[in-house]
Each structure stands twice: as structure tokens, then as C-alpha cells.
Amino acid sequence: MKRFLPLLIVTGTLWVPSVQAQPAAPAKPAGPPPVTTKTFDDWLVRCPTAPQPMPCDAVQLLLEPKSKQRVLSLSVAYDQTKAAHVVRIILPLGVWLPNGVAVQVGATKIEKVAIRRCEPFGCVIEGLLDPKLREAMRKGGDAKIVVFDQAKKPLDLKFSLKGYDAAEDHMTAETKKVKLPAAPAPATPTAPAPAKPATPN
Predict the structure, then answer these.
(1) Which of 48, 59, 175, 199 could form a disulfide with 75 if both were Cys (CB 3.0 to 4.6 A apart)?
(2) Per-residue confidence (pLDDT) for residue 178, from 0 to 100
(3) Helix 164-176 vs helix 131-139: angle between axes, to the nearest 10 degrees?
(4) What's residue 85's pLDDT?
């Protein structure tokens, strides 16, 4: 029997891993982050603005209600160079890696998605968003990610699709406004120097 872990959806604040360090000088009060945000029901669109405008992403963060620990993070962005949407999922540490994970939205299911790597903040899945899965996400409905614990038992991590279609539309439109860096011009081959005439002895 699959277990269900209740989650708390957070759209107003985002968990960011930090490293404690001893400052060389008294720290100045932190200003607002250089990111503009807009909420679409259970999804948040983030658009970095400094040091220059950067591609946006639509994100949802899920917390365990009692401990307030992050259990699941989903981020969808638009890659202009590939003209495709990409997804980044951060899972909790301690999942059983060999089984991968399954992502299910309505009747659409992607099996055995590989976990690319694990960092101190969690295990990461990255890649292109499957077109069929994206279409199902835009329609809404039930959605979950199935992970396996160390006992190889499945655990359902349910997430919300409320507001996803509007969040994706806004994120994609804002990302397309960001100018891609110009490709470096190909190097012009240098013409060989003319040979000097031989000097008679």
C-alpha cells in the first residue's frame, strides 16, 4: 500500500541553502533580493533582475507541515536556445536511487525518471519536460511524484497544478523578453606574412 505524505504548499517564500561563514566586516542589512515574483494560485514565477535580466522560472515549494522542512521543489523554465521547457525537481535526501522516481499527472505517467545527483540540499532531477506530461500539467488535476524510501517502499509526494498554466504562460512570455547573449564571432584567419626576399651573401 502506498503511503501519502501530507505537504504544505508555499508560494510566498522559497528555501535557499546557505553556508555559514565568518564575515570579515560587520554585515550590512540585507536588502530585497534582486528577483521579481508573481503568484499564480499555488505557483510562483521568479524573474532575476540583477546583475542583468535572466530567464524566469515557475516554482512550487512543498513543506512538511509539522517540521516545516522542504520535501519537494519543482521548477519549470523555458530554454530559448532549445525552444523547449525544462524541469528541475529537488527531492529529499534518503530516497532509494536505483528505482528512480515516477511522475504522474492524471492518466499520464513517466516511469523510472533517473535522479542525476544528490547534493547536501537534496537529490536533483533535471531535463527537458516531456511534452505529454507538460500538456497534462496545463490541464490541471491530480499530480504526484512517487519516490522510494530506503526500504524500497513507494511514497507519494502530491503537488498542486492550480495556477500552473497561467504561471507557465507568464514565465515563458517574460523569458522570451530576455535577450540571449550574442554568439562570439568566428575568428578571422590571419593571412600569412609575405616572405622576405633572400639576401645575397
Answers:
(1) 59
(2) 87
(3) 120
(4) 97
